[in-house]
């Protein structure tokens, strides 16, 4: 449209200017004609009464004079007449001009002196008149007086205004006609053929039609169509080959890899790219506190750790909150950018939230309400009506953003987590043909706990608009089915593991999330070995047993219990003083929430207190590194750690446990793992603990420290087998397979 406007606008301007010039000339010409006509008439009337005037003036016959001038009173255009004596004094005047005195007409003297008639436009009161004055002369050429006839000129201006109005209407009609003709021409010769060509291209390469030659002809468009034909044919052939190979490879029962997932996506989704929605974005741009320059970081988030490799493998669009303070600098006009930076494997679309929206939707309802509601850590959820309103508003904002991206036919949307319980319903209202899966990354509570949420019905209703809902473990699925059964009018099918509400069926499945091979791959690189040496030197770790913890600072992760257990372990086993070090990498998280803020202070004080308790020379039992680490920075810590401690009080899965195991290619290392994590169901060869029992926890550290190498090797081998078989590609592959099977069903 913009382009068309650039084309039409100059034409319209030229036509408008030409027409206006023509109009001005036309108006001038008409005006001149009318005035000439007026003058002619005035002159002939004045000359017509010259004879009567002469008799009146010679006889000084006032009565006849008055009769003569009043005879004009009733005329319409010729409005008045004045008879002057030879001194230029008014002898008789038509009533309606009686206020017009001789003193208002300095030119009378000239007419008397020169004996030459005068015609001119004059103003009388508030209107314009045409006055024509002739001298009345006797046979001896003596001046007897003057006669003035006065014409109304208002009809000249009325005629002019009318002319202008008609010209303007003609101009506007002409311009509208030109625009319509141009639009018609452009539609006929450009838009329609291009639309036809595009539609043909889409159908042909999908194999839906066989017809070739969408547009015939040897003109430019015909040539373009012929080029497009060639490309479409090659694409169709190539796609068929890729698809057949992909299906072939899929059928082989081999380990899931990035390539195998890519094949599956090609084979199952075909044209339809994947749309992922999450709150946390996988890459955020922030201003570096030290250098002041923008930099790109990956946030400490399990969702990002899991989904980024999937998106890198299969492409698509990831829609998330743009939360970095330099994020706006790196997006295009559609708020998009290619990521990972420099590699551009998929598109990240950033959605902007105001401070109030972030406060209510993210910090408030999601993290002070739903997060504690779903985690059994005895933290009371807070539900504020204002937060709920913001949560609803932001869900709608994301829905609009997703809807703006969806292709015309059967798209796939994959929603992440508890921030978007209403999103599926909002999307389906506008696009019922969308297939939607939601993955719930945190635990789902039992119905009694969930029923404390004042918005339970809206949340469940929103979620049940999905076609598929995934949880990490079966017990979370069971809790969800039971919740829907008890709190919502619905039918639960325990055979199919689905919930039916108002005829819509939602399937509920367990998909244990996992990690990719990232930590495994570079485990023995020279750079990594160098970094391990540097860390060992900096923290004097040589010859010591090193345990590691890697977490966001969150009350669900059991960080306080972990420090108490390390303390108790050393208390009970003083022989490990100076020989055991626990390193905690801790990324500050949700720091605007008071509970998280207080927890940070509590951990700071506790670390300080316990280190002081054991301080002997340089040795400190706890090294607390409170900051965000990149994946590359975390690698050497996993690699050098003899033990990894995961002590969550409640955790959907916990990817740190899996990352640690994946990084231990040398099989040297032990994992202490809370029973209350989803990972505990799979990693049964870890040392399982109840983090609430500090005694048991401390004894588990001793067990891990003293575990015979053979046993720890065996356990690590078993755990690694499980993780390499059930990696993140299998997780995503299973979800896609399930989802596409549902659509066909
Ligand atoms: P999270 O609660 O974020 O995820 P988790 O699974 O432990 O928890 O993943 C944390 C991720 O952040 C890991 O990849 C880890 O390496 C990284 N990380 C931790 N500390 C870091 C630090 N200091 N600096 C940088 N990175 C750090 C939610 C659920 C989990 C579920 C995941 C995935 O709470 O139960 O496992 O989603 O579904």
Describe, in plain words, how this protein is organized in 3D:
By secondary structure, the protein is α/β, with parallel strands linked by helices. The protein has 3 domains: 2-158, Beta-Lactamase (2-Layer Sandwich), CATH 3.30.450.20; 274-510, Glycogen Phosphorylase B (Rossmann fold); 526-726, Glycogen Phosphorylase B (Rossmann fold). The chain is 51% helix and 17% strand. It is built from 24 helices and 23 strands. Strands 10-11-9-6-12-13-14-17-16-15 form a 10-stranded mixed beta sheet, with helices on both faces. A 6-stranded parallel beta sheet has the order 20-19-18-21-22-23, with helices on both faces. It has a 5-stranded antiparallel beta sheet with strand order 2-1-5-4-3. Strand 4 and strand 5 (143-152) form a beta hairpin. Helix 16 crosses helix 19, helix 17 packs parallel to helix 18 and helix 17 (559-572) packs across helix 22. The structure holds adenosine-5'-diphosphate-glucose. Adenosine-5'-diphosphate-glucose (ADQ) binds at residues 300-303, 305-306, 441-442, 513, 550-552, 585-587, 628-629, 634, 651-656, 659. Residues 300-303, 305-306, 441-442, 513, 550-552, 585-587, 628-629, 634, 651-656, 659 line the site of adenosine-5'-diphosphate-glucose.
